[in-house]
Amino acid sequence: MRKFVRGAMALALPLILPAALVTAPAQADGPGDGRGGDGDWRLVRAEKFNRALSDGQARWVRDDDGPGSPYDVDAYDNDGKFFETVGGPAFRQQLSAFDTYRKSFSFGAGGWLTAELAARDSDKDGTPDAPPSLTTRKGVAHMDEPSHHGGVLIRSTQALPSEYRVEMTLRGLDFGGQREGSWDYADGRINGYSPEGCKTNHPWASSGDFSRPECQWYDVRTDSNGFYYLGIMDYARPAPHNNVFVHTHRKVAMDSYNRYKYTGTGLRYCNPQTKQYEPYGAGTGNGVNAIFMTDDRRYTNQPGTEYLMHSECGVAKGKAIVSQVDLKPELMPEESYRFAIERRDGAYTMEMSGVFAHVGQATYRYTRAFVQDGEPIWHYNQKPSEYDGRFNADWTWNGAGGTYTDRDTWPAGSAYPDTFMIGDPHMNFYEGSAQVDDVRLSVPGRDRP
After folding, report:
1. SS3 for 60?
2. Which residues contact 428 (CB under 8 A, 6 or more apart)?
């Protein structure tokens, strides 16, 4: 049975209970109008990274991910029942081929932020291989991840309030996408990945032959790279896990999904100037995917919630992933991008600001109610009283290890905290670096009629 959180601790802030559910349509503010929400937010936490910060203050600790681990969550985590089911005995053999090491430390005023880092130790010598790092230099946080076997993210230490606005400023990004018009970089990297060795999704696949040698698994270098600008997760301690796990725990998220020389129909761009969808190849592979998750399964043969995507081109459910805007990484650090997520009045809002392709400086905001047109935002309820169980379901999986049924994926009486994350939460995809120069949290500054 799926684990869910009851009575999650919230930040020690004055909280305002959410109003009744609203069903207002999605909204977008026009280019260049520069709104940062409604203007009646009160800033309660801010990290400017102007003090020395280094992950060297914490030590690497081996994590076996069993029931005693603080990173043990459910059937989809790194040693979960889902993988035992689809992979059979071969999955355990593959998982035992390396050790996993983690480090975690809190920082910022009152420790309101926490860094989570993870890496593999393939030769089991007690030292992580090519570990990620988090440091500050000249008032900017540098997140560096030299191997796709690692992960690094910044999260809120405690659950977020019932209503909030969280935002971050991005000063640099190098997690794939085209550079100078090419997916193959002048320094030899391929979509942001180093050219040395094989790079695959081993050992966490959603199907297939788990007994293959690591280098015969799915090649991530010529598939995709990416980064989470800001996401709201449904459990208390976001940290790097496998990609399948992450896709079952997002409420809303803004991320990049930069697919190498992709010519298929599974992704598309919205051109915010013409308000028309364009093929993925019309962009530069530096899109922002702002997605509201809903309760339907996106795939029939693997975990993952379905996507609701609002853009200047309209509203789409499922099918091709929509990139709302196309970033211009070459403009950073002189220019910056700001990403924000709000939870207020029974709805979530995602906001992105910066210099985008086609339109220049612009701000876009997309709002969706917790339940709108019969579609819920996945695990929106922070309290049992906010939800009546109507979207509960069982998910059943079959594979070499037999049959597993994940019962009660969203039962009455459940509650799911809102916790934000920034970075790369995948331990079998994504590689690169990013720079963040502030993270802010606000709550409503006054009551509204």
Report:
1. coil
2. 148, 149, 200, 201, 202, 203, 204, 220, 242, 243
Q: In angstroms, rounded to a whole number, what is the distance separating the alpha carbons of residues 294 and 291?
A: 9
C-alpha–C-alpha distance, residues 169 and 162, integer Å = 23
**E strand intervals along 234-359:** 250-259, 267-271, 276-279, 287-297, 305-311, 314-317, 321-323, 325-326, 337-344, 347-356
Of the pLDDT bands very low, low, confident and very high (cuts 50, 70, 90), residue 300 is confident
Residues 6+ apart with CB under 8 A from 331: 355
Burial (CB < 10 A; 0-12, 13-18, 19+), residue 266, is exposed
What is the number of residues in the chain?
449
- Give the residues across from 200 on adjacent strands: 219
* Residue 152, token pair as written in the block: 């690094």
Cβ atoms within 10 Å, residue 4: 21
Do strands 133-137 and 164-174 pair parallel, antiparallel, or not at all (unpaired)? unpaired
Check residues 35 and 138 and name the one with the higher pLDDT.
138
Cβ contact 165:345 at 8 Å:
no
Residues 204 and 83: beta-carbon distance below 8 Å: yes
pTM of the model: 0.91
What domains can you pick out in the chain, each with its CATH number? Answer: 41-444 (2.60.120.200)
